[in-house]
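User: Please fill in residues for this 131-position structure.
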């Protein structure tokens, strides 16, 4: 099942996979950077805090999560040159919480828990900029 919701004038796609809702991170990222939403996602993925959150989520819900590779990624995350993409995350750790697609109309979907965390990072940034 696929659908769309509109939040603050932005259409956000979602789909149901194995009875779980997955929400488009690409659509959420367009609210911050319309021209290059994939950069917003990559920047979010490269933070140590995000890697830690994703690791906990995967350990809770993914019996096939590659914890050994995750630990390697987590050690690498604090380094200045660290780069993480959704595809690399999935390929390296066997993650199920993020589902990247490739091609001209590529879209990155994430389990609703992860998508809400991603969206809330924009709220936190906005609030911090106001203080």
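Assistant: Residues filled in for all 131 positions:
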């Amino acid at each position: 099942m696929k659908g769309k919701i509109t939040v603050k004038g932005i259409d956000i796609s979602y789909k149901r996979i194995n009875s779980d809702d997955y929400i488009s991170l690409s659509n959420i990222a367009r609210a911050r950077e319309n021209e290059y939403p994939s950069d917003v996602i990559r920047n979010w993925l490269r933070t140590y805090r995000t890697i830690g959150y994703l690791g906990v989520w995967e350990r809770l819900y993914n019996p096939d999560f590659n914890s050994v590779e995750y630990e390697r990624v987590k050690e690498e995350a604090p380094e200045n040159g660290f780069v993480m993409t959704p595809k690399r995350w999935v390929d390296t750790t066997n993650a199920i919480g993020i589902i990247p697609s490739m091609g001209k109309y590529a879209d990155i979907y994430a389990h609703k828990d992860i998508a809400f965390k991603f969206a809330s990072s924009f709220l936190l940034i906005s609030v911090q900029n106001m203080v």
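For context: Residues 112-130 form the longest helix (19 residues).
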